[in-house]
Specification:
Length: about 120
């Protein structure tokens, strides 16, 4: 059984910063890609950032230059450093891990953490 635990959401003023983290626990064999998604009220869930096993990163255009994703494989943890936050970044943020087992790869989601940016 694998569980993802997210931390770091909260309320911040526009221009401020937050750092999210997400850690996998349980029977984790190895983790392939790690990513962050977000869902604002009334909108579909969208990809925010992605980091591959090799450390290659990809960002949504709306967060490029402001957000940084990183991973610590020894801790089974992914981070999202969010700077210069804007009110439109307000959403529930979810981490996503692609976890490799002996014969398969499974997708796991965190419980979500609320990020609210006030103007």
């Amino acid at each position: 059984q694998v569980q993802l635990a997210e931390f770091g959401g909260g309320l911040v003023q526009a221009g401020g910063s937050l750092r999210l983290s997400c850690t996998a626990s349980g029977s984790v064999f190895s983790i392939d890609a790690m990513g962050w998604y977000r869902q604002a009220p009334g909108k579909q869930r969208e990809s925010v950032a992605f980091v591959s096993t090799g450390g290659n990163t990809n960002y949504a255009d709306s967060v490029k230059g402001r957000f940084t994703i990183s991973r610590d494989n020894a801790k089974n943890t992914v981070y999202l450093q969010m700077n210069s936050l804007k009110p439109e970044d307000t959403a529930v943020y979810y981490c996503n891990f692609q976890i490799r087992f002996i014969t398969t790869i499974k997708n796991y989601w965190g419980q979500g953490t609320q990020v609210t940016v006030s103007s």
